[in-house]
Fold this sequence. Notes:
Blueprint: H1 2-14, E1 21-30, H2 36-41, E2 49-54, H3 58-69, E3 76-81, H4 86-96, E4 99-106, E5 109-111, H5 120-125, H6 130-133, E6 135-144, E7 151-152, E8 159-167, E9 173-178, E10 187-192, E11 197-209, H7 216-228, H8 231-234, H9 240-247, H10 253-256, E12 262-263, H11 281-288
Amino acid sequence: NIARNIYPRIYMMLNEKEEFSNGVSANIVTRDDIWLRESISSIIKYVDEIVIVDSSSTRYLEKNKEIISDFKDQINLKYVWKDLDITEAKNLAQDMSDRSYILRWDGDMIAYNSGEESIEKLFKMLKNPEFENYYYEIYFKFIRMGYDLNSVPDRDTKYQREVWLYSKSKDMKWVSKTLPFSTGKKKMDQPVIPLFYKKKILNQVFGVHLWLIHPKEKLKAKTLSGLWRNPSIKAKFKDYKEFYDAYSGQINDKEIYSVKVFPANDIRIPDVLKEYKDKSYEEIIKIKSIEYPWII
């Protein structure tokens, strides 16, 4: 901790900060998300550019292009489709960005844009001179949602706090790392944060992550990913494709919807999700099927 406090000062004495246009670039990495429109709507007024790296399948790709066209006149919006893993997609989005701060974002993350928890306050904080003179990694909270807007998957850890906002630099990259409990090739994306970055941890909750409010096929993929982490299952197959081909047809609804959730009626709903308040999972998916007819 001492080193993390002292080293940024020494580094900035010896080096000039890389020059990028002041402001925030929202980097949205998406793959078959049904919440892309709401995700963009919740942040577009507060960021300076949006970079979208889309790895979606064909059906979603056409719909995503239609959604993006609705926003292109409101902001500097860069878009590319490439079939990449999440680490490659995040690095590409970062490389395409021109602003001094990167807002790491997903296609199923929705920000609060009014009241005490408005994400606007986060970006106003960046105008403080300290954020212009140093590189920063900034952590804040999201609420991870269950199968609807009145439930969470774990009462004790409903808040998801990660490095969602950080300074852009050539040394800040994303890498794939094998999880400590994983014995196979399944890897997760992790940031490699330089020592000269200052860490700032905020307790504020700035939005919700619609973690389980997805169509059945996407939840099925999450279930299969979880099974693949089991060493005894993994040992039976040479790679994930072989495992997927063998198991995908065997997964039943009970397994797909297996995450235990708990009531959380006190959660504030972001403005762009008001029409889904008090709706069941089935009702939400039915409403979304108007825009994505193939999901039911």
